[in-house]
Design a protein that fits this description.
Strand order of the largest sheet of chain B: 2-1-5-3-4
Radius of gyration of chain B: 12 Å
Number of strands of chain A: 9
Strand content of chain A: 35-45%
Distance between the termini of chain B: 31 Å
Mean pLDDT of chain A: 93
Number of strands of chain B: 5
Oligomer: heterotetramer
Low-confidence stretches of chain B: none
Strand content of chain B: 15-25%
Shape of chain A: globular
Structural class of chain B: alpha+beta
Order of helices and strands of chain A: EHEEEHEEEHEEH
Radius of gyration of chain A: 16 Å
Chain lengths: 157, 87, 157, 87
């Protein structure tokens, strides 16, 4: 079961994981990753981070990423939740989770989900600094490198 | 054709969505970028390649990532945006 | 900050992660792994799993594992919670979490924590099957192999 | 010396903890295993190596993992147990 969600609302990790596993007793481990807004960028203090996305394509991309993980590993469930809009430092941005009978599959799939999401889902971050200036975040080459670990074609350049 | 712009492309062009009537000789994403670039200085600046010739702007056709060679028609939804930075 | 806990009580993942991060705004990502009791073992239905441990040595071992992770990766915080006593299928056994400014460090440290815990902390699992029979779980060689990824000396054989 | 047994060693020996007075010639973990094995059939069975000679039982001295060569004294806490299976 792959579940994805995009929205403004915060998420409760415990409730999300409980919903993901339900009454199943065939899950041996759940890996998760939570991305959080940091309070500084390039040594400057952040007031907020604003997430823009491409409605429609975002959901398609997240479903495709979740299904790709389910094809690569024997997962009982996998989850991607990504927030959009204005977020403050310390607030969670994204939650990915992968549940499997075996821990290595759960851990590997978790890393895969976040690596793919960072390069294949249409989100853009804008930083607003305490001094009022704004800047769009640059894509990092290390994200494309992380993709290569999964034998993935980089996003068209 | 419906065209969408996101992030700093949207800001530089000054709009997030426009509907255009496609000239007959625009058949690929590369053609579309050239033609859109002639519509305003904002379009030209937003869609220009980097000084080293590298393509900065990414494109999706009907919500799938696309290449310069991807073919486009009047009925497609085409989006232009910077490299993604989510997660 | 390394936090470890061993006990009978269940844990609330959301509360544990909130306590781990507190008001910090220098954390960019948190990796977690949750181990769960599966309902079957060797094709037989499980009634419960009983976790025995070596009080005193367990806490020492978990602290040592958490500190080893903090030496290897730039972590803002790391957490190990391990339950003992009788657990039912579907119940969580263990929670490990690692928080870092960067996602790769958080993910790698999470995998390291659970791999090391599986081979270096004195816990033993006994399975009680629905038919009333009991069996101690055998150590798996794959756990020692997982350790080798971290360049670790296997536990004395 | 305080000796602890865990998991199936505890069950096979029939006790989780015993205090023993160490003979003078018992100075290492290996010595201790041999000597304990002579105390009862349960001890002998629990502490025996596998049929291929591989050591099954693990040991900790003062709550640190120990080798057969690790030295022990009357004041140490020594524990014997199977390979760990937590997590």
């Amino acid at each position: 079961m792959a579940a994805i969600r995009v929205g403004l609302a915060p998420f409760d990790v415990a409730a999300e994981l409980a919903a993901l596993t339900g009454d199943r007793t065939d899950i041996g481990g759940i890996g998760t990753f939570i991305g959080i807004v940091r309070g500084t960028a390039h040594g400057r203090s952040l007031a907020s981070m604003t997430l823009e996305h491409y409605p429609g394509m975002t959901e398609r991309a997240l479903v495709a990423i979740a299904l790709a993980a389910e094809r690569r590993w024997p997962l009982q469930a996998c989850l991607i939740i990504h927030r959009v809009g204005r977020l403050l430092p310390g607030e969670p941005i994204v939650l990915v989770a992968a549940a499997s009978a075996h821990r290595q599959a759960a851990l590997d799939a978790t890393a895969f989900l976040i690596d793919w999401l960072k390069t294949k889902a249409p989100f853009w971050k804008k930083e607003t600094f305490l001094d009022g200036t704004e800047a769009w975040v640059d894509a990092r080459e290390t994200d494309e490198e992380a993709l290569a670990r999964w034998g993935a074609t980089p996003t068209p350049a | 054709m419906k065209i969408l712009y996101f992030a700093w492309l949207r800001e530089r062009i000054g709009c997030g969505e426009e509907t255009v009537a496609l000239p007959a000789d625009v058949t690929t994403v590369a053609d579309l970028v050239s033609w859109l670039g002639s519509r305003s200085p904002g379009h030209a600046s937003a869609l220009a390649p980097a000084s080293d010739g590298r393509r900065i702007v990414r494109c999706a056709v009907n919500q799938d990532f696309a290449d310069p060679e991807t073919r486009v028609t009047e009925r497609d939804e085409v989006a232009f945006f910077p490299p993604v930075t989510g997660g």
